[in-house]
Amino acid sequence: MVTRKDITNCLMFLVSVMIVMNIYTLLIFWKTKFDKELENQKVREYGNIGKLPIRQRTINSERQNVDVTSVRFQISKDGKIRLLVPKELRNYDLKSVEKEILDKIKEERTPVNSEIQGTAYLERRWKRAFSRTSVIRNENDLIDGRLNPLPVWRKIIDWPNNIEKLVNDGSLGQILSFLSHVKVIQAKNSRRGTQLKLELILEGGEMAFFKPAWYPLDTQIRGEPYGGKDRHFGEVAAFYLAQLMGYNSGPIVVGRKLNLVNEILPYSTKQLNNTFFRNSGGELCFYGVCYYCRKQDPICSVQNEINGALILQMKQKFKLFQNPWRRTYKKNEFANWEKNMTYCQNVLLDLEPTKRTDLLLDIVAVSAFDFLIGNADRHHLDFFAGDPVTSGHVLNIALLDNGKSFGDSEEDYIDILAPLYQCCMYSLTLIYTYFFFFFFFKLFKIS
User: Fold this and answer.
1) What are phi and psi of 373, to 5 degrees?
2) Is the dihedral angle over the CA atoms 222, 227, 232, 237 positive or is it negative?
3) Hey, CA dihedral for 408, 412, 414, 418, is it positive or negative?
4) How far is the CA of 305 from the CAs of 94, 225, 256, 258, 284, in angstroms?
């Protein structure tokens, strides 16, 4: 005899089957849509800058040969993009030499990771991105009592190779929160670079650099792509973007407010102390010691407090090499790569043959990241002196010094991508990541 319980169980089974079938149909639909989008993009094995879906805007076919210092995109008031080209480079053409470059570089094939496959990779990237976002957003959570710094510092000994572990167990959020409040026990001038920054020793013995805030967050830096002072918010934003995009070779960065009277002056060296003074408004100012440091151009506090970016020093040692795509930093004087679209061939000859492909793929991935953040000032590359990073898009180069980023939200400096469109190489992991975010923005109509 059929009971009510039997009928209920049968109905539940049928409903379960229907749910499973619907989920399977939905997955097949999204996989088909992804494959179709990928086919429409026609991304070849070597890539093509004209087909990379970084932004979906209309590009004006009429190029503007005006007095600019680099090839760039500029957003006009009607929402279109103008391609601005220096007068000296009016013959600059990204497409005319494409076939020639591909023919010459075929021996440098793009490595394919067999584990990276379509929707499966995108699903992992989705979970990884939002997992990191949810953890990082907890950076301001209160920590009970006064936290012992030593356990925190032990967690970053293997940074960035243990980044996934720190994200999964929530330690990254705790580290960021701790850096926002950790006590400074020594402050001195930093001789690194040409701009003002402080070298701080934090409680527990870790060292960090502090880049003070020169500009409000909504500042637009016009002119040269490398113009202006370092932007502290650029360092912070670059760190978060690197986490979302899977770039695992940079330092930990957090925004930090420091009280000059209570947190810096009592622990500063005599050399740094000598640069402090009160301005006409009674606010405490200092100018430090560096190449561009001047008393006429100081950092001044507001009620003794200054904002900035706290950048934790990485444990690894680095070898500094000049970027092959370095700018001349001189008006009307262009580097070889700006005048020669086959410049990549020269770089290939200079690189060590056994590491040629890996290093070039790293440089391309760095240029893609710099394009996103608008950093046209990557004049040197910091190569890891020891073992490379175990995961991420960039394994051999550390993403240090991103201060010249997010300067002008209305311009995209296309020549930052010169390593990509001149060498026509990229890793599939990098492209899949960019495709994921492109389709995500397109799906949710995020512009």
Assistant:
1) -95, -5
2) positive
3) positive
4) 48, 30, 10, 6, 9
- What is this structure's pTM? 0.73
C-alpha–C-alpha distance, residues 70 and 377, integer Å: 12
Residue type, 96: S
pLDDT tens digit sequence for 73-100: 665 656 565 666 666 665 555 444 444 4
The rounded distance, in Å, linking the Cα atoms of 213 and 2 is 76
* 343: its two tokens: 């410049």
User: Average per-residue pLDDT in the chain?
Assistant: 76
Ranges assigned E (strand) in 233-389: 253-259, 276-278, 284-286, 299-300, 305-312, 318-322, 380-384
Q: In whole angstroms, what is the distance from residue 109 CA to residue 221 CA?
A: 39
- Whether 377 is catalytic: yes
CB-CB neighbours of 324 under 10 Å: 20
Distance CA 47, CA 108 (A): 13
- More confident: 165 or 399: 399
Given 230, 362, 370, 377, the catalytic residue: 377
Please report, as a single letter, which amino acid is at residue 397: I
